[in-house]
Amino acid sequence: MWVYDPDTLRFLIVNDAARDLYGYSDDAYGRMTVLDIRPKKERERMRDAVQHRTDVEKEQRWTHLKANGQTFEVLTYGREIRFEGRPAILAIVQDRTEVNAARRQVTDTQSLLDSIVDNLPVGVFVKDMERDGLYILFNEACGVIVGHPAKDVLGKTDRAIFSPEQTALFRAQDERAFKSASTISFEETIEREDDFPRILRTAKRALPAPEGQPPRYLLGISQDVTEERDVEAKLAHLAMHDSLTGLPNRAFFSESIVRQVARATAAEPIALLYIDVDHFKHINDSKGHAAGDALLRQVAQRLLRLAEKNDLVARLGGDEFALVLKMTDADRAQRFADLLLLSLASPFDLDGVREHVTCSIGIALAPDHADDADVLMRDADLALYAAKESGRSTYRFYQTEMRLEAERRHQLTIELREALQNDEFELYYQPIIRLDTDGLSGFEALVRWRHPERGLILPMEFISVAEETGMIVPIGEWVFREACRTAAQWPGHLKIAINLSVYQFRHANLLATIVSVLDETGLCPGRLEIEITESVLLSEVAQSLCLLRALKELGIRIAIDDFGTGYSSLSYLRSFAFDKIKLDRSFVAGIEADPGNLAIVRAVVGIASGFNAVTLAEGIETAEQLAKLRAEGYDEVQGYLLGRPMPRAEAETRILREAGIGTMSAKQKAPRKAIRRHAC
Question: Helical H runs in 488-540?
Answer without folding.
Answer: 502-505, 510-521
